[in-house]
Amino acid sequence: MTTSVRAWFPTLIYAERLQARGLRAFNLELLDECRRIRDYDAAGRRWSAANYPLGYTSYGSLDRLHRFSSTFDLLRQRIDPHVAAYARALDWDLQGGRLEMTDCWINVMPRGCAHSFHVHPQAVVSGTYYVATPQGCAGLKFEDPRLTKMMAAPGRRARARPEQRPHISYPARAGQVILFESWLRHEVPASPVDAERVSISFNYHWR
User: Fold this and answer.
1) What is the CATH architecture of 13-145+166-206?
2) Consecutive sets of 10 residues in the chain, 207 residues long: mean pLDDT of each?
3) What is the DSSP string of 12-79?
4) What is the C-alpha to C-alpha distance for residues 205 and 207, in angstroms, rounded to an integer?
5) What residues does each domain of the chain span?
6) How far apart are the first and last CA of the chain?
7) What is the 8-class DSSP label of residue 134?
8) How far apart are CA 5 and CA 8, in angstroms?
């Protein structure tokens, strides 16, 4: 790119390890609790059968787990500083307010389970935390928000720079936090492996 062409209006995505130490033990505790909640959550299993084929999510039943479980609230406490760092990177002026986790739910995805492109209405920051990521499991795929405005523009070269491609994927890595603005369309493609991919999704609102 020459100096006569500059990039503007960036879309920022944040990816970082939750903490420097103790991730394995913490994730084992979270994984055990996720499985126990799934066993307990009959309403969530019914909702998932109709809306989340092959997998389980507590989105339709228990979507504020940080208020239900001390383990999930500890996760919230550890995610909060990452959200604050992301807000600084976005140059947000919170005007004396704060970013607060409002929703938090479990996703368990075995082979064939997918979550098609969607956004998180009304929230400002959304994200996911990876608890268990078997080798070969699907990552998180984001869509260029300008696609609907490109109209008659030519397609991109097959070897276009990553920042110029219509989609970008972040691999799923246990212990990693991914943050993005809630209006950004994203999906999880169908899982190609039998082992369960376990993640925790969440939203933050500006209070």
Assistant:
1) Sandwich (2.60)
2) 84 97 96 97 98 97 97 98 98 97 98 96 97 97 90 87 92 98 97 96 97
3) -EEEEES-SS-HHHHHHHHHHHHHHHHHH-HHHHHHHHHHSTTSEESTTT--BGGGT-HHHHHHHHHH
4) 6
5) 13-145+166-206
6) 40
7) -
8) 10
